[in-house]
UniProtKB/TrEMBL annotation:
It comes from Streptomyces yokosukanensis. Keywords: Membrane, Transmembrane, Transmembrane helix. The lineage of its organism: Bacteria, Bacillati, Actinomycetota, Actinomycetes, Kitasatosporales. This is Integral membrane protein. The chain crosses the membrane at residues 15-35, 55-74, 80-106, 118-141, 153-170, 177-196. It comes from the Bacteria.
Length: 254
């Protein structure tokens, strides 16, 4: 284990990336726990205010991201400075992306349906970083044996093919499958061989003169969304908290 750690994490300089990912995920989890406790009125935590201004945690997140980013650029990725900068950057990125929806909408939509975008972005970001971390790259590792070169060559070929399938799935409008398929083998292949979603680039290019294909794609997308909408919402609620119910507007009132 120690030999594998040294050759695949430390020697290629992936330790800062691993520390940044760990800090990113841990910060998101801790932040969500704290804000849910604040929302429920439990525990010692309170919203931070300066006068009557609510200071969102994206503000210190931006500061930490800037400090950690410049610190990582100025540091040696094999040294302690690079590791510390990676942790600071990961914490800042976790705070910022936890309020991604606020930045996107320029409004406090944390506990609304629009706020679910923050959870999706955090999960997708963690998946992409995990892909970079788990990649079997031969660059940066010295003294590889012929067998190791063959093994890594095969791994790189498999990753390249999987990435190609992920791109096809993305062109078919299947963003989540494309992202997770880039990390989990065969998921991208599953998305690449199935019908494209209506309105996707693939559907516009290849289904334009095929009305039956368009109809089948629309029906399959409808059935898929109806089947998986509730489990997906339940998972998002479990991770990020249940949004506030939308206010009911009476007819004739604005």
């Amino acid at each position: 284990m120690g030999h594998w750690w040294e050759r695949n994490i430390v020697e290629p300089g992936k330790l800062p990336l691993l520390l940044a990912l760990a800090a990113f995920v841990l910060t998101f989890v801790v932040t969500r726990v704290i804000v849910r406790l604040i929302r429920a009125g439990k525990g010692p935590f309170r919203n931070v205010k300066a006068g009557g201004l609510h200071i969102h945690h994206v503000v210190p997140g931006v500061v930490l991201t800037v400090v950690g980013g410049f610190g990582a650029v100025a540091s040696d990725r094999h040294g302690a400075g690079g590791a510390l900068a990676a942790v600071v950057f990961g914490i800042g990125a976790g705070l910022v992306l936890d309020e991604f929806a606020l930045i996107l909408h320029l409004d406090d939509v944390y506990w609304t349906e629009e706020g679910r975008k923050s959870v999706e972005v955090v999960v997708l970001t963690a998946a992409l970083v995990l892909l970079l971390l788990a990649g079997f790259s031969p660059f940066g590792v010295n003294d590889l044996t012929q067998q190791e070169l063959q093994d890594r060559g095969g791994a790189l070929t498999a990753i390249a093919m999987n990435f190609l399938f992920a791109l096809i799935a993305l062109s078919k409008g299947k963003t989540r499958i494309a992202v997770f398929g880039a990390v989990v083998p065969l998921v991208a292949l599953f998305g690449a061989v199935r019908l494209a979603r209506p309105g996707s680039a693939w559907a516009r290019r290849f289904y334009g003169r095929r009305p039956r294909a368009r109809a089948r794609a629309a029906l399959r997308a409808y059935r898929h969304d109806r089947r998986w909408a509730r489990p997906r919402r339940a998972l998002q609620d479990w991770i990020g908290g249940k949004p506030d119910p939308r206010p009911v507007r009476l007819p004739g009132r604005r």
